[in-house]
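Job type: complex structure
Entries:
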Amino acid sequence: MPELATISVDSDDDLEALIEQSVREKWGDGLPFVPPTAERVERALARIAIDPDHPIGVVQPSGATATVRNVTVNAIMAGCSVSHLPLVFAVTEAICNPLFNLRAIQVTTHPVAVAGFVSGPLGAAFGVNAGGNAFGPGNRANATVGRAIRLVMLNIGGGIPGLVDKATFGSPAKYTWFFAERQEQSPWPSWVERSGAAGDSSTVTVFGAGGFLNLMETTSSADQLLDAFALSMAAPNNNDHLLCGEPLLVLCPEHARVLSSGGYSVADVQRRLWETARLPVRSFTMSARTYRLGPTWTDILGELTEESLIPPSRDPEHIRIVVSGGSGRHSVYVPSTGATPSCSASLDPYAQLLKA
Amino acid sequence: MTLEMLDPRVAPRTDAPAVATPQLVSLIGTPIAVIDNNKPRFDLFVKALLDELRDRHGSEPGLSFRKPNATNSAPAAWYDLIAEQGGAVIVGWGDCGSCSTYSFLDGAELVRRGIPTVVVISEAFTTLISMLAESQGSENVPRLVLPHPPTDLDDQELINLAKERAPEVAALLRGEHSPGSATPDFDSEIG
């Protein structure tokens, strides 16, 4: 069993000194944390029915292996309760999927954050907030699971801000971004059902998320609502249009009901937005036309002209839709990086590891 | 009072020991391939660079590939074709985090295949690439480091920069210069 190194601090105010040390040595995110003492970690691992050295995935760009043990250390540090560890393990597996291109997410100048959400009955069972403030404060699972993933990316993946993480601005969402689908308020099949999995199963899904844009609209017309969304999504500096992305639309329950009442299925919403959230080539700079649109879109749309209309994704299905959030007419558009496809991992196997 | 906790960090994986840096004996008659990641105006820079290498060092144009985007590695088939052709390759350019990373990873793979290689990056990303090189066991991948951001230069300035730096590229390909070393005087091979 590989032993983890220890960090010790001698101080009259040991917690304050630890925060300072974590920032100085670049293994913290700047916030206070729960010291993952050997006793705390052993207590947590005793409730997980698997070899602590079980590998979960390879975390890029360092190429180090995430194991149940070292992920647990980071999850405790983030403030997770033991009962949240299955969520952290599943999200870690999802970000380690090579298709996710975590290496690009970790090193890019783009402000991308990892946004994760859970779909299926385990979201509520684990207490993940899908209602008001789903992206905001006040819930331990949302706050700490997302933070644990950031610490995994930092301490196992080596994404040290300034040295490896070269973000021009970064994002507040890089501290944490984790929420749940609000299926009981959705008029449509759940994310997990639409993916082809059994309806009683649960998954976590991660997006390379370039922040989000609030979409406030009070109309009760489904057509007008989608036209307004399409206009908001179409922007010439948007990576989705420049690089053929995978935008995520998180619809609030009230907007979802407007669309459903108007006769729209999820597939209808995707197709309508794919056909209308477009920009003509002439809207883009010459640099973007030459070095982004041409190389990205010619194979998909054919030879481009000034009037060619650029969609945000290669096909309607790649505009992703999920319902979450509380009361109010605010949905959110989450633009992607254009180079980091979303990835999912099954939550059920990890949930079964948790002992009472 | 002493508080002791487990270290949350995990040491990076270090790949197999680096192979010897592949080198050219001479550029004369040598095809120089290009992997262009389509970042703005690398095409202009690398064309001027190839022209200068041909005029001053006697190289020949080689295969040329353009990646559809800069945030993924090139297809392995391109590495194979470049290896089949022989000669050397220039990869670029890295003027952001992800494009520097993937240009470097392309370069590291080409070096592993024994192809003399130069990766073009800008100085804002040298620390990132050095850390990546160390974790990959690829410190020996030759790099041409340009001022950042290179796209601040107008077209003529970029062409001039390419001409000025061509002798350094030739020296890197011949193994006469390594990243971080003092810049020597570089001689033309054909006068």
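Summary: Chain B touches chain A at residues 1-13, 15, 38-41, 66-69, 71-72, 96-98, 100-102, 124-125, 127-128, 131-132, 135-136 (CB under 8 Å). The mean pLDDT of chain B is 91.
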